[in-house]
Amino acid sequence: MNKQNYLQELREKIVDWFGLYFPDTRLGDLERGLIQAARELKMDESVDGIYQWMMRAEKSRNDIHVLATHLTVGETYFFREQIGLDLFKELILPRHMKNEKTTVPFRIWCAGCSSGEEPYTLAIIIKEYFPQISEADISILASDISPLALKKAIQGIYSEWSFRTIDPFLKSKYFRKEGGNWRISPEIQRMVNFSFINLADQSYPSPLTQTEHLDLILCRNVLMYFDPAVIKEISKKFLNCLNDDGWLITSQVELNDEYYSDFHRIQFLNGIFYQKSSTKINKAITHPGPVAGINHPVIPFVQPDKKSHKNNKNVTVNPSKNQTLDKKTRTVTHQTTPDLRALFDTGCYRQITEFMERSGNHPELTPEKIPIIARAYANTGHYREAAHYLEKLIYGKQTTPEVYYLYATVLFELNDYEKAETHLKKAIYLDHRHIPTYLLLGNLMNIQGKKELASKYFKNVFTLLDQYQDQDLVYGTEGMTAGRIKSMIVNMIE
After folding, report:
1. pTM of the full predicted structure?
2. Is the pLDDT of residue 329 over 50?
3. Looking at the 3D structure of the chain, how many domains does it have?
């Protein structure tokens, strides 16, 4: 057999063992992962040698662990995908606390937790916003298939790269500096239990793995790498793991009613989530409409604020008004012109918008400052205000591909798809290699049912990513790697 045939057969073996699927466009990723695993195990690194080893009947537990480590994607960070965290903080936990009959712990499972940032984020939210909940009233299970990732999670030591979206106040409160890294505080660390669970096997639901009678499962940016048939099986098992009215939170790029048909689809703020059947709750917050494949754009700046969604036409739930963080971290600095870039880079979006509201149309605005202000408004859910500032540049003929792209993402959030498409095409006219623009165009076409056009734009993304290594970060995509983008869109190409 030639190398391609070997890899295709090895791909089927990987599906059987782990549920992970490598389409033809990612066979190079499979080969690299297998070679790295063989190197660590001190085995023949040729594809033929790997094939002979993989087809042998017996594999040690260590062999499986090493393979899992090199074939899975471990990219994550604290407070990733805020929309799912908003649901947890604003709806799920408050409703649980109102249930006076509750006598058992609220049980959470982070399935595919990688190096632990996600479960620790949940623990921080609980400790910060719900201090009345005791540790005995919460159970957080976090699992992964990679022993290396679990080892890092249990150690609880993280580099600066894991903190790219965390509030600096929370970082200083729940972590301590240790050399060039940061260590999670013991009170947060003891709230999470880590475990090895292979989502492709039959180890759940089970009391032995603590995966029965759950109230919430988070499985985000994990199943996009799995074989479709395996995803359906995992979905059924997740359903059986949950209590009635329990929740499943996936990434917004993994939404697919075909996979999660046994769940009720729920819209909260600007996101879609899944819930085990409950007529009472679903009548209140279910929002009709198509959900399939990737139906949200990759928007590198929009992290909607919990208290301001007046511009969103599809809002169906009003979140509770939880207290904000320490006022010292939210007060606008009383200097004439604050350093807008520094405020933005540290996540102080509200300070920027409060400054603008206090000072009006500031005379010192420059073309460099306006996009920062617009992003700050967008990140706090004020999309119309964001559009207003960007129009100053567009109508003033001070445009760049980034300005057009930024404006189009705001228009997308305002459901003005036609105008968004127009400005995305203007961005491409100025820079035909602008990857975020093609991604957003593909998503825009996809949610409108224009599958052929969506496929065309996603193919352009693949072509442009040829110049990147899979581990390379792609400019303008909120720290996403080329490999992850490929995995997200591969099934959207016809």
Report:
1. 0.57
2. no
3. 3
